[in-house]
Amino acid sequence: MERVLRDGFIFLSQNKTLNGLAKRYGLKFGAGRFVAGDSLEASKRAIQDLNSKGLCVTMDHLGEFISTVAEAEMMTQECIRAVEMIAEEKLDSQLSLKLTSLGLDISDELIRSNMERILTRAKEVGVFVTIDMEDEPRCEKTIQLFEELRQSFDNIGTVIQSYLYRSEDDIKRVGRFETNLRIVKGAYKEPATVAFPEKEDVDHNYIKLVKLQLSLGNYAAVATHDDAMIEQIIRYAKDNGIGNDKFEFQMLYGIRVERQLELVKLGYKVRVYVPYGRDWYGYFMRRLAERPANVAFVLKGMVKG
């Protein structure tokens, strides 16, 4: 049943018609639990609140299904405004972004130009930028673009997904840049030809990849809500003399808030992924797909509403 729910929500996340309706009707039906409002100002308030509790942040202006140069330009400008706000407000925050929202599917020249503009401004104001990883067909182009950009910018990292067979090689490949990597399980529906179909294998590979990243001496952002995995990484770091300054835990906005604060009290850096914007639908559906138990939160929100 869990797999059926996951596949169903991933299918819904890719529906452009429903995405358009979601933009029209706003953050309803429980999405507000996982999305920090639809504006930059709303995200600022959420980040300030999290910072006051000792939590770091990476903010993400949500955007998918970009198909025109004009839309890519709007998203690029929003990313630039975001890094400027982080600096102006002295927020403890980084920026995450998706290449498809900036023109990846339109042209190589466009996406490279837009990323260079964002990274240049981010470097000027001292903000770190993470390129989110999307579905497998876009993985190679993402890695290639990262490699190109990393030669000119040191304020950039990317994401590796443990459900892909290729991920171990990708970590070794980008490791030569001393890359700051966020390691996640993955939230897209992929065929068994490119991804582990069984959750147990994805989980096993996840721990393997985090350990590999740390063994290379590179920084690992351990993005998981799973206590067993968290404890395994803590134990591995202690057993191998790896300091707390070489890794952090990352969790999603609105999920396991108490656990986030517990880890901070234990002396670990915790970074919260804070999404905002009107284009929240695809992100929201994937959060439900990742953890169908989140549906319960949504249903409670609808009843209260």
Describe it.
Its EC number is 1.5.5.2. Pfam families: Pro_dh. Its cofactor is FAD. This protein is α/β, with parallel strands linked by helices and 305 residues long. Helix content is 50%, strand content 13%. It has helices at residues 2-13, 16-25, 40-52, 69-88, 108-125, 139-150, 167-175, 199-215, 227-239, 257-265, 281-290, 294-304; strands spanning 56-61, 93-97, 129-131, 156-161, 181-184, 220-223, 247-252, 270-276. Helix 4 links the parallel strand 1 and strand 2 (93-97). Helix 7 (167-175) packs parallel to helix 8 (199-215) and helix 8 (199-215) packs parallel to helix 9. It starts with a helix and ends with a helix.
Set down the secondary structure blueprint.
Layout: H1 2-13, H2 16-25, H3 40-52, E1 56-61, H4 69-88, E2 93-97, H5 108-125, E3 129-131, H6 139-150, E4 156-161, H7 167-175, E5 181-184, H8 199-215, E6 220-223, H9 227-239, E7 247-252, H10 257-265, E8 270-276, H11 281-290, H12 294-304
Parallel strand pairs: 1-2, 1-8, 2-3, 3-4, 4-5, 5-6, 6-7, 7-8
Mean pLDDT: 87
Share in β-strands: 5-15%
- Overall shape: globular
Order of neighbouring strands in the sheet with most strands: 1-2-3-4-5-6-7-8
Taken in chain order, the helices and strands follow as: HHHEHEHEHEHEHEHEHEHH
